[in-house]
Amino acid sequence: MNxxxxxxxxxxxxxxxxxxxxxxxxxxxxxEAARSYLKxxxxxxxxxxxxxxxxxxxQEFIALLNDEDAAHLMESLPELQAGQLLSALPxxxxxxxxxxxxxxxxxxxxxxxxxxxSEAIIEQMDPEEAENVRFLAQYDSQSxxxxxxxxxxxxxxxxxxxxxxxxxxxxxEEYATYNVQYIxxxxxxxxxxxxxxxxxxxxxxxGRRLNKMMIANPTSVPDSTSLQDLQHFFDSHHLxxxxxxxxxxxxxxxxxxxxxxxxxxxQAGRTFLRFAGIMGGEELRSLPLKIRSARRLSWLxxxxxxxxxxxxxxxMYEETLETVIALAVFLPIVSDMSGxxxxxxxxxxxxxxxxxxxxxxxxxxxxRKELGLGLVNGxxxxxxxxxxxxxxxxxxxxxxxxxxxxxxxxxxxxxxGALIPxxxxxxxxDPALASGPILxxxxxxxxxxxxxxxxxxxxxxxx
Amino acid sequence: MNxxxxxxxxxxxxxxxxxxxxxxxxxxxxxEAARSYLKxxxxxxxxxxxxxxxxxxxQEFIALLNDEDAAHLMESLPELQAGQLLSALPxxxxxxxxxxxxxxxxxxxxxxxxxxxSEAIIEQMDPEEAENVRFLAQYDSQSxxxxxxxxxxxxxxxxxxxxxxxxxxxxxEEYATYNVQYIxxxxxxxxxxxxxxxxxxxxxxxGRRLNKMMIANPTSVPDSTSLQDLQHFFDSHHLxxxxxxxxxxxxxxxxxxxxxxxxxxxQAGRTFLRFAGIMGGEELRSLPLKIRSARRLSWLxxxxxxxxxxxxxxxMYEETLETVIALAVFLPIVSDMSGxxxxxxxxxxxxxxxxxxxxxxxxxxxxRKELGLGLVNGxxxxxxxxxxxxxxxxxxxxxxxxxxxxxxxxxxxxxxGALIPxxxxxxxxDPALASGPILxxxxxxxxxxxxxxxxxxxxxxxx
Lengths: 463, 463
What we know:
- Chain A is α/β, with parallel strands linked by helices.
- Chain A has 3 domains: 19-138, MgtE N-terminal fold; 154-274, Roll (CBS-domain); 289-462, Tetracycline Repressor, domain 2.
- Chain A is 66% helix and 6% strand.
- Chain A contains 24 helices and 7 strands.
- In chain A, the strands form 2 sheets. A 4-stranded mixed β-sheet of chain A has the order 1-2-3-4. The first copy, chain A, has a 3-stranded mixed β-sheet with strand order 5-6-7.
- The two termini of chain A are 58 Å apart.
């Protein structure tokens, strides 16, 4: 139980690739076969299969499905992939598929499209659904308003248990897709005044009024509540859904635990990508080359400038370097190792920020903790690399220069790496994207400077 | 709505630090104050406040709380932090707190302790709960068995709606913490035969037998199902919980959507940390320095060896380097930029593996996609850096050497970065941890070799 086995993919039990079969179905325009093909796919395979088809094939396949199956397929694909597929469909077809989705999924997918594309689809939608989507689209996608669903059960406080049961029975089919756990009780102004669990209805006499049995003044959140606050809320409360109210206290939706968890997971994925220099959100290889290349280059071109700035330090010490050419071997090692040490600190700070264990104003606490670690790791790594340098050239002063430079630079990198994410976060900038380049530029410059200036000072003993 | 505002933390509305107030409460041993203090903390603040207290203060604070509040607090802390706190408590106290937690949380926390510590706590627990924990602890924490809860409602198929409602009413208090959505129907051998939604009970005549109204042969998963398969399942099914069966088809638990989402989020966090070279799981700064330092050094010491191996290429070309000392300025730039390009590819492949869009055997599809991108980015970056080299020294051949080396090395880094995670995953190794060091060693070596061998070939025109 102790070691999480995260590479559980079992290669042995995999079926032979079935997308050739899919190509035949598409070519034969066989709706029935398309449907049963989709049903028999192991979970998760649909995303992979779709990613391997050309855009035309994807569209032809979608055209073979009924709207409900197409909606189901789109919901199980990564949002970016579903968005690409959607943007290639005629707006009328897209709108029909949309009508089969939950409100939050509609909005998430429209987020992937251009303004014109999403407007074209909304116009073709069922008018009531369209109004709802427009209403939801006004919210920041990472706020309670953007994460909530509007499919909820609300009743006026003067209604009775029997009213609710009758209503549920009459619309059983519609509510079947609602995943109801709570019933919300509102007053005549549509303001939230109470909540009832479904199981409470089971145990109540039919004639009882809702306001006589509801939990009054239930917890609710304003529609502007941030994802992070929602995450903290669900961490510390065993609830499935949280009613969302607008500025007038009106009940506007329900944000569910699962949506908050999923948004958190997606955010962690994007943080990971930004940390490695992928800008503009998710990158899937099904995106056009032009977009992928441009996004990656935009980050690389900033880095190349920073790299040139850092390396210009070396150019200032060309003479020293010419005298002790062995230094050129150690320059990349010192800068790279310090970068690694600093990145570890960045990762821990970024993670602690996400977990809510630290905040920007805790910088001194973080600095103190990191100073000790920087000293221990700096001394250890300095002795290691200094020893190698000494043994290689048989010159203890070379060992001193290299070891001393790496030790000091590690200490600096560890402390800077820990603080940079806090500083960026304090200025409301994105720690994941900018911390790495800022750190490595500083550690490169400082590393080159330390090696070369120490060498210049000890030059007589190095030659 | 388009730009997710992920830095939503609002510095203005924050209260002044309240942990000094907490220190006073702890010093005064004021139980009542401790309780109301905890209640009034904004969501998420508890983790941060606890992280700032010394270990002794944390224990004194926990001692002031009743078991239920203490359990509640521990559940809202990051697992690592809660585990540390727990390991410092006397086993009797820890066991009392444990009895207030859900079964899956108990097991997650025991995972953080040594064998001896967790055995000491289990021995002090309520015997029934202890047996349950021992049963759950046998499972891999990232499988359906490790993620499931055992608090579920199951009834025999011959029972009636009235039996269920009576049972629910009689044990309303116990079930209040269960978050019930489904009722599971089993046969005399405890095998799962059907499922009922709570709302179905609302609409049924009291005397009806469960097997006359249940959904027969419900979807269930074996207890060994992997987290990844569970994620795919919940992606494509609108269910809240999924019954888990053992090898004898017996119903052993329920894995809930929220637990799967949360496990996915935690896994994404750990992947992020491993990617930056933090081994051994979560690192919080509240861990002892010795452990933090040793974990980071274990990864850094592998890296320093790899760095020395790569830099030894430079040592082989000392003469060339002495002749054209300007090359020493560009060596770190070429190796660093290629590392950045390769890391972008690693991140995209790792992410696509997590999303299930690619699998190891799709390597050729990935390679083809990345080849084009490597060419475009290689040529662009080569021209950029080659241009800088040419302008700096006024020597077009220097530009050719540097630009050509960076271009080729970028192409190689992009392709290798895309494939390495697939290869590692194919061999059931961890792509996040090992991809980076393998890539940078290869790109460093290759980058140094390309710059210096090109320079040697063009040496007459470079001096």
